[in-house]
Specification:
Rossmann fold, globular, six-stranded parallel beta sheet, 12 strands, alpha/beta, binds flavin-adenine dinucleotide
């Protein structure tokens, strides 16, 4: 198993994973975590990412709503206003190829000077009436561009075979229209709301996590520490890895990403296989830690194994799976 091999080769993963507060920024974005943690070795022995004297001495500033809610504070008009606004039709302006099954879709907002109106964390829903189905297909997406960017929203969408919405998006051509509605509020973030957050993502489940990560690290007031555990089938399925590595290099003391893939390439320095109990035990701060939160977003099988499924958009459902077994409470976990 991955975690065991890391433990054998580089000491306890928990200690190593949380050790980044003492590490210097990595010089290369491709420097693998395991090399980094092995290299710092005994120098960081005893340091825990959360709850050490050092961590508690650096008490986070008071929560502030300001910078994480950029779209709320800007004077720009909002394309999505929630409430009874209904669906807004947006024109697809550009399609940018991303990888073997994923594309970026830039949709124009009705006004060039408008912002989307999304807050952190929130999503949009898209609606499409397929001739093959009686009812319209409605699916949530989390745009990957900044909330205060004007004139467009950008989606990163993976195509699922026989997936009605993703196949429709992938078949669209620039100039065509799609119906959007938002913001669909998710977890309302405020700077320093939690001391440490763990983000557990699978596949396209990274986009809500990326929205949170972007907001936290663009706000100088926000001192939240963030650990990301990101599972995928293969290395080429890992979305937004470059962007994540950039943030990790810039904020090595507060952000660490850990990747695990089912089929790793040769000399893969991260994890192999599914996100396991052993891995989560090593990475997430102890359930008794003060003010932590764990976020989960991924395919249904991942929810089932890790947190239990969400019942509905307004009902998080009970906590079950690995997080429950490890002693976390329902209040400590948010399912996107
Ligand atoms: C809050 C939220 C934000 C999302 N943001 C994005 C995004 O930015 N980009 C994107 O491509 N997708 C995103 N998704 C997933 C998206 O809503 C659709 O589920 C997906 O595009 C498949 O829709 P479909 O109609 O094509 O296929 P469906 O028939 O709905 O599903 C096809 C297959 O996809 C699997 N699947 C469903 N949801 C997920 C998921 N979240 N992760 C992995 N596999 C899944 C299903 O198990 C099924 O096997 C998000 C989901 C949520 C809940």
């Amino acid at each position: 198993m991955f975690a065991r091999s890391v433990i054998r080769s580089a000491g306890p993963l928990r200690q190593n994973f949380r050790s980044y507060a003492t590490e210097a920024p990595k010089s290369s974005s491709s420097t693998p975590l395991i090399v980094g943690v092995a290299a710092v070795g005994a120098g960081i022995a005893g340091y825990t990412f959360l709850g050490s004297n050092k961590a508690s001495a650096d008490a986070p500033p008071k929560p502030s709503e300001d910078a994480t809610h950029a779209a709320e504070t800007t004077s720009a008009a909002k394309a999505f206003r929630g409430g009874d606004q209904g669906f807004v039709d947006l024109k697809l302006a550009e399609i940018i190829p991303y990888n073997h099954n994923t594309k970026r879709f830039k949709f124009e907002l009705p006004g060039k000077d408008q912002v989307s109106g999304l807050t952190v964390a929130s999503a949009v829903i898209t609606k499409y009436q397929s001739p093959k189905h009686e009812k319209p297909v409605i699916r949530p997406y989390t745009p990957i561009n900044e909330e205060d960017e004007r004139g467009y929203v950008e989606l990163l969408v993976k195509s699922y075979p026989n997936g009605p919405m993703s196949e429709h998006l992938h078949s669209m051509a620039p100039g065509q229209m799609l119906s959007f509605k938002g913001p669909i509020p998710k977890y309302s973030w405020a700077a320093n709301k939690h001391e440490h957050i763990t983000l557990i993502a699978g596949g396209t489940g990274i986009t809500p996590m990326y929205q949170l990560i972007r907001a936290i690290f663009k706000n100088p007031e926000d001192k939240t520490k963030v650990s990301l555990i990101f599972g995928n089938l293969t290395e080429k399925d890992i979305l937004l890895k470059e962007e994540l590595e950039k943030i990790e290099n810039e904020f090595p003391q507060r952000f660490r990403a850990f990747y695990t893939v089912d089929t790793p390439p040769e000399s893969w320095p991260y994890g192999k296989g599914h996100i396991t109990k052993e891995l989560l035990k090593e990475v997430i701060p102890d359930p008794k830690s003060n003010n932590i939160k764990v976020f989960v977003c991924g395919p249904p099988g991942m929810y089932k194994a890790i947190s239990g499924p969400k019942v509905s958009p307004t009902d998080q459902g009970d906590l079950s799976g690995i997080l429950k077994e490890l002693g976390y409470t329902k209040e400590q976990v948010y399912k996107f």
